[in-house]
Amino acid sequence: METSNSIVCLAVWALETHPSQARLERELQSLFTQGLSNDDIDDALRIAHSDTCPSLLTSQIARLCDGIVTEDAGIDIHLSTEAFLRERSDVESLSLSVGHYETVSERLDPGSRVYGLVLQNEAFALSTQAGLSQDPEANLWRAITLYKQARQCFTVGSEDYGVVLLNEGCAREDLIQSNRELEALVELNQAKDCLTASLACFKSSSLLRANAQAALASVLRHMGHISEAYEHLQQALDIFEAMRAQFRQESERISYLETVAVLFAEIVALCLTLADAATTPAQAEQWQWKAWHWVHRGKSRSLLDRLAEAGLPGAVADAAHAWAELDELGQTLDTCERELWVKLHQLEATGMPRATVAATPALQPVLEAMHTRRGRHS
Predict the structure, then answer these.
(1) Most buried of 251, 281, 321, 322, CB within 10 angstroms?
(2) How far apart are CA 57 and CA 15, in angstroms?
(3) Closest to 128 measured CA to CA, from 82, 76, 74, 182
C-alpha cells in the first residue's frame, strides 16, 4: 500500500517483519517523538477503515493509534475498528474483531452497561464465526458464556437485557446443530426459557419482538411443539409485515425480503406438518387450506414488494389500509374456496358426475361469491 502516512508505514513494516512487541513500541515512540499530529492519526484510521485495506493491516493500524492517544480515545478506536471488521463477516476479520473487544473489555468497569454491550458484541462475533464453520462448538460455548456475563450488566426487563436473552437463546439452538451428541432437550429448554423471557422485554410491535418470536418458533418446532410454533411464527410475520414500510434503505429491504421469505416457507411447512398429524380429515383439510393461504399470501407480498422497489404506480408500501384490505379479501377468498370444495365433495359422494356437480344450483351462491371476491382481489 503506497502512502506517506508514517503510522500506516510502520504497520506495514510490522506485518512484514514481525518485530518483538518491545521493538515495535520503540519504533512507535520514535514516531511520536518526531511529532505526530491528530491529522496523522485521523488519516491513518481513514486508511484503516477503507474498503481496500486488508483486515490484518486495519487491526495493526488501530493498535498503533491506540498506543499514541489517550485511553478513552483508544477505546473508541478499538470499538470503531471492531465494528468495521465485523461488517466484513469473514473468518479472519471476525477473529480480529474479537481481539479488539477483548482489549476494550480489559479497560472497562465490570458490571457497567458499556461493559455488557462489549461482551454481547464479542459474543455475537463468536456466534457469527461459528456460523462460518469456524470451530462452531467452541465458539458457541464461548459466546453463551459471554452472553450470561453480559446479562449481569443490564436491568432485568430492559431492552438490553432482552437482546442478550434473544442472542443467547439463538446460540443455544445453534449449539445443538453443531453437536448432535449434546443433550438436545436440555439445551432446547434453556433456549426456550431465554427466548420466552426476552419477549417481555420488547414492545409488542417491535422488530426485536418479531425476531424473538420467530426464534422461539424455531426452538418449539425442534421440540415437537408444532402448534405453539405456528402461533409464534404467525405473530412474528404479522409484526414483520406491519413494519415493512419502515425499511427505507436498500440493504434493509433486501434483509427484510430474505427474512420474510424464509418465514413464509417455515409457516407453510408447519401447516403441512399439522395436517399430517391431524386426527380427523376435517382438521387435516383445515391445515392444508391454511398452508395454501400462506403460500398465496407470501407470493402476493413478494410481488408487491418488487413492484414497490421498481417504483411502479399502485405499489404504495406504506398504505396500511391497502394491506389490511388485501388480507381480508384473501381470507374471504380462502373461505369461499373451502366452502366450494366441501360442497363439491358432498355432492360427489352421492355419485353425481363432476360435470353435473359443477352445474348444480347448490354451488351457484358460492361460485358467485368467489367470482366477486376474485374480481376485487385482482
Answers:
(1) 322
(2) 7
(3) 82
Domain boundaries, position 364: 329-378
Q: Provide the grid cell at 103.
A: 482489549
**Residues 305 and 350 occupy one common structural domain:** no
Tell me which residue has cell 404504495: 316
How many domains does the chain contain in total?
A: 2
Which cell goes with 71? 485511553
Instruction: Give the ranges where 200-249 is alpha helix by DSSP (H).
Output: 207-223, 226-242
* Per-position pLDDT tens, the chain of length 378: 678 899 999 999 999 999 999 999 999 999 888 888 889 999 999 999 999 999 999 999 999 999 999 989 999 999 999 999 998 989 999 999 999 999 999 999 998 999 999 999 999 999 998 888 778 889 999 999 999 999 999 999 999 999 999 999 999 999 887 766 666 788 899 999 999 999 999 999 899 999 999 999 999 999 999 999 999 999 999 998 888 767 666 666 677 777 888 899 999 999 999 999 999 988 998 899 899 888 887 776 655 555 455 554 444 444 445 655 666 666 676 676 667 666 666 666 676 665 565 555 655 555 555 455 444 444
| Residue 86 near residue 79 (C-beta atoms within 8 A) | no
pTM: 0.74
Q: Based on the domain organization, do 269 and 350 belong to the same domain? A: no
- Residue 156 is assigned to a structural domain of this protein: no
